[in-house]
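Margin note: ligand = glutamine.
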Amino acid sequence: MSKTKYIFFTGGVVSSLGKGIAAASLGVLLKYQGYRVTIQKFDPYLNIDPGTMSPYQHGEVFVTDDGCETDLDLGHYERFIDTSLNRSNNITSGMVYWDVLNKERRGDYLGATVQIVPHITNEIKSRIAVHNDENVDIVITEIGGTVGDIESLPFIEAIRQFQYENDEDCVHVHLTLVPFLESSGEFKTKPTQHSTKELRSIGIQPDIIVCRSHLPLDKDIKRKVAMFCDVKGDAVIGAHNAKSIYDVPLILEQQGMDRVVCHKLGLAESKSDLAHWKRFVQNMHDPTNISLTIAIVGKYTNLSDCYLSVAEALKHAAAHQNCNIQIQWINAEDLRPETVDTYLGHVHGILIPGGFGERGIDGKIQATRYARDHAIPFLGLCLGMQIAVIEFAQHVCGLPDAMSVEFDPGTANPVIHLMANQEEVVNKGGTMRLGQYECHIHPNTQLASLYPSNVIFERHRHRYEFNPVYKEMFEKKGMVFSGMSPDQRLVEVIELPSHPYFLACQFHPEFKSRPLTPHPLFMGFLRAARLMV
Ligand code: GLN
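Resulting structure:
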């Protein structure tokens, strides 16, 4: 294919309609059509990235191979199109303004008055065009926020100009809500009409309208949307509430959304074969599946978005092992010696996810101890590994004051600490080990039996590390260090061979789990959890 094509997703009426899922689902369909697809997100906020934002506000921070801290939609994109993305796939207003202002300070604008139009919009357009290379056939760009927001206006203006300059190669998809009014028993298209009008007033006529609704839309409603929003009849696509996010590509495919897109872009269509995807979705919903209860002990318990990739990785592995997962979110602060049995006595597996800060540490140690003592499958991720180390030091190695320096800088037994060279960096403002690193697996370990290769690459996002001073002591007490950095200095994975499945890693395996290729550590964890039923 010669020329790169562009698809822009805007949203209307309300936020949280699942624009990211819709964009990712179209990505799946186009990928199955044989095209090489990338997806990028424009976030209109002024933070440079979500790395410093509270997970309560913004959900999980997703980390790419190249160490960029990104919006959680990037996780959906990667999982759906089964492609690793990078820092060029998540652009914030903060990044755009930062670069423009730096250029201004360097004098790059040669004395011009620097303005939103054209300088900011040109910068945005350059972030779209950056994907124009021989490895990408189609770029899908999701504009965060809702049409009419002040913040997203420069992005909307930029895509309008982009289309003006590349008309043949662009498609605009507008995602809206079609509410159902119980009182009159009918769907209402007026909000969609208004939102489309708003989009047109800033110069963009959508080619496709995706209507989110509670129940499937009938033909008359679709016809009405087509007529009043001025799109072709087959370009109104219904996206009713689905059983899972992985059903959405199938719902869009049934209505031929990929066909409409290919037609508009002048792309050849093939008969795409979604058999593997369909099988995964069927397995996921199979009523004969056995049900497993997995406890996730975290700091943010009322918002599953905070640990989104962990929940998705569990679902992927579960579907491949014909089981259903009931996640029991447990607030670590609720776990005390006298309550731990009530919370964890019935679960088939215990997972401690990543996290920062002291709150809930004691409860996480309680949960880990419970898993170790009661032979309950345990998976520790990042902070979860550090907790497993602290618990082992306190209760097996006889170091009751062992701690991470993150929670007790003056601890006499800093089993989790900062590496000497890191200490300096932290004093200069702090940085983390971010992105993909190589890990070497020791033979004849449980870890080695899980991965197909002894050299693996996993993504990191943390500051502290296992303190190697304690390694020998831990080994004598039965802990195996089964994954190490290539220079053998950094501990990446620990395990307890005396336990059915007690494994914890310094990296975040959840970021690399995909629906059709579940992650080996989650597969091992659920295989062990299944044996508990
Ligand atoms: N707070 C820990 C650290 O910085 C763990 C981070 C995490 O779990 N992502 O090392």
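The mean pLDDT is 94.
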